[in-house]
Amino acid sequence: MARLTKSNLPQFDVDIFQNEYLAEGAREVNAIVTVTATGGGTGAQVGSLSDGPAAAVVIMVDCSGSMDYPSAKIHAAREATAAAIDAVRDGVAFAVVAGTHEAKEVYPGSGQLAVSHPGTREEAKQSLRRLTPGGGTAIGTWLSKADQLFLSRRDISIRHGILLTDGRNEHEKPADLQRTLDRVQGHFTADCRGVGTDWEVEELRRVSSALLGTVDIVADPAGLAEDFRAMMENAMGKEVADVALRVWTPANAAVKFVKQVAPAVEDLTGRRRDTAPEEGTARSASNKGGGGRRVGDYPTGSWGDESRDYHVCIEVPSAAVGSEMLAGRISLVVPQPDGSTEVLSQGLVKAVWTDDISASTRISPQVAHYTGQADLANAIQEGMEAHRRGDVDHATSKLGKAVQLAHESGNEDTFRLLAKVVDVVDPKEGTVRFRKNVSEADSMTLETRSTKTVRVKKTP
User: Fold this and answer.
1) First and final CA of the chain: distance in angstroms?
2) What are residue 454's phi and psi, to 5 degrees?
């Protein structure tokens, strides 16, 4: 594998948004970290046949018996997989897996990955007639098969899965699926899609979250082909894998949480991996001998040309008025073949204690916005869970709060989804009434997309 350096990676920039002023005795520092990768789009050169593949993708298609009820689902799945195959770039390694209570290779079928070119793409599409429904559902076996295929090419760094299911994971215990997720996470990323309304949102979200991918619903099978094509095109735009958000904190300080907050909410706190201080960076006196416990890496997955926002909260020792400190150093790092890491960009989180009330009580607009977006996601999920339990009062209260937050933040997409589930009486006050005869598709769409956020509006 070639050495990844700043010269052959997208340009990463880190911007920190915070109010660094704290009241006397205050200990919590909040910052929004905006990471932007630009200058990619060289994928036509990456993974060429002469160099060997630099990226790989495995498409996992649910072929359980329920995919034949109605038969439009399996037909749409074949068409969608063909559309995805057409979008695989020349030189990228790929495979197709049929998933039931077990996993079977549909293409190329040799325990290996094929290398994409017009001939192999056509062969793969011809093989899709073998996607026939029958059997149960055990998603862990599909992921294990994808992992085996990816591991057959250890020279490939960017590994991405696309997983489609139409039902619940009924032929596998939750603990077994979790063990599989624990084993394969970090090996590849995966986007998950549920077709129809007989699958469980939380179950599929657990898979996508562990594998740092997306989850969405395609209620109408007719929409699968376009969705698969878009997912594959997005995967083909990834140019660097295993990027981590590295957070250094000084002595007696600790990271309270790290969350991705845009384009979707994803809590990364529990994914921390303690590591040594940053390679290739100057160490201040307070960082000497810091040890791994003061530096932690949080995985962010693969990147192309894109921008994401992260909310970092750090607890620091309380200090007197006039004190200043570096509360944290945020770095973007990527691993190297020799075990070192390349630091791509950095930003600083600061803390200054003041007795100026107007300064210490001012909330960063970015922090306030994304705190509201996280609260919006939680309110929707809690509201829908309460509705499933039959607690209409609590559900109405939570979804009313969600309507209020969506209205205040300008999250128009989520507001429209909420309006399909509740009648909005007063969006400013969050006054709503549950609609009668809400479709299962509308309820699941709202819950599935609850974590999608909007960016902070730029001021003129």
Assistant:
1) 45
2) -110, 150
Q: Which residues pair with residue 254 across a beta bridge? A: 315
Q: What is the pLDDT of residues 389-441, one digit of tens each?
A: 999 999 999 999 999 999 999 999 999 999 999 999 999 999 999 999 999 99
The amino acid at 27 = R
Burial (CB count within 10 angstroms: exposed 0-12, middle 13-18, buried 19+), residue 244: buried
Closest by alpha carbon to 311, among 330, 335, 289, 291? 330
Task: Quickly list DSSP for 292-360.
Answer: GGGEEEEEEEEESSEEEEEEEEEE-----TT-EEEEEEEEEEEE-TTS-EEEEEEEEEEEEEES-HHHH
Q: Output the six-digit token pair for 257.
A: 């949480």
- In angstroms, the CA 130 to CA 127 distance is 6
Residue type, 269: T
Q: What confidence category does residue 83 fall into, taking pLDDT thresholds of 50, 70 and 90?
A: very high
Type of residue numbered 405: L
pLDDT digit string, tens, across residues 130-159: 999 999 999 999 999 999 999 999 889 999
Amino acid at 75: H
At 11, list the tokens.
């340009």
Of residues 387, 419, 382, the one with CA closest to residue 403: 419
